[in-house]
């Protein structure tokens, strides 16, 4: 090894150490979570929520977004969306018949929700060559919401309103990737629309590359292709 | 002169309209959201069911019987029965030759998210027969109405 490259190596080490110290408490890591249904198969459309145990970690709330959820062929498309608090969600009816879209806190919270909480939107059917009817709502209350239709009880959808950057939905392979998570101890929670109760959080230690697998007792409602 | 011309045009339009209506009535009805497999209704079927009001009260009774049925009641546990009765009324009114226009989902889409078996379908037909019999609709008229609905099993039965 030449003197030059040794110097370069030393310099690099110092740079890394300095950056590490300046970077503050912890290094950012990527956490990959695989969520499994009760039958052991990957569980898509679950929400993975990670909370650092260290209360000094500042949660940087993600900025609100604009999102469109279509009502198409008796479905909400997409069926599940994770949105930052304050986001504007536009419901657009692409079906030829009307829908009465309802949004309520999901699960047990929905049963005890005060009358008038959530929203109810009447969207007329789409007429050929005319723009589809749309209504936009702003979502300020964090937590899971269930979407339904007053006229068509088979329609189900959900929204997860969040104020943390570490709430991500699982893809078709049951995998959620959470970027820029601080290293150290963290609690991991999973939410799914078909769950009966909130499961206890999983404790994990976040290292630069963390991959975990979480088993749930959720068996998703079968959807037709 | 202009007035005369207008009258002439109007009468031509009226004649054409009448002619086309007559021709249309003889043709097979077109597929629609009410039925993808349209069948020409038997003459006087709509009147035999008591027209709009008669069909609506028949359907109001029908949906309650569906909900109470031991075989298929569970399928209607969360159903908006009032809306179902209204949609069915519009559908049967249109198919039987009445002036209604059914504005709901086509049968395939309407049942796509439900697990409907052949047994469910047959049970529903039986409940409909009981409902019609309870209202004194003659057996022949019952079967004429069922003939309009029966081909739809292809779109409704999603579990085989």
Class from secondary-structure proportions of chain A:
mainly beta
In percent, how much strand structure appears in the residues of chain B? under 5%
Stretches with pLDDT under 50, minimum 5 residues of chain B? 12-26
CATH topology call of chain B? Globin-like
Helix content of chain A: 10-25%
Q: Can you tell me the CATH topology of the largest domain in chain A? A: Immunoglobulin-like
Mind telling me the CATH class of the largest domain in chain A? Answer: Mainly Beta
End-to-end C-alpha gap of chain A:
62 Å
Class from helix and strand fractions of chain B: mainly alpha
| % residues in beta strands of chain A | 35-45%
Q: Mean pLDDT across all residues of chain B, rounded?
A: 87
Instruction: Summarize the main sheet of chain A.
Output: 5 strands, mixed
Question: Which spans of chain A of ≥5 residues are poorly predicted at pLDDT below 50?
Answer: 12-24
Global shape of chain A: globular
Roughly how many Å is the radius of gyration of chain B?
19 Å
Largest interface: A-B, 16 and 14 residues
The largest pleated sheet of chain B is described as: none
Question: What's the helix-strand series of chain A?
Answer: HEEEEEEEHEEEEEEEEE
Oligomer state equals: heterodimer
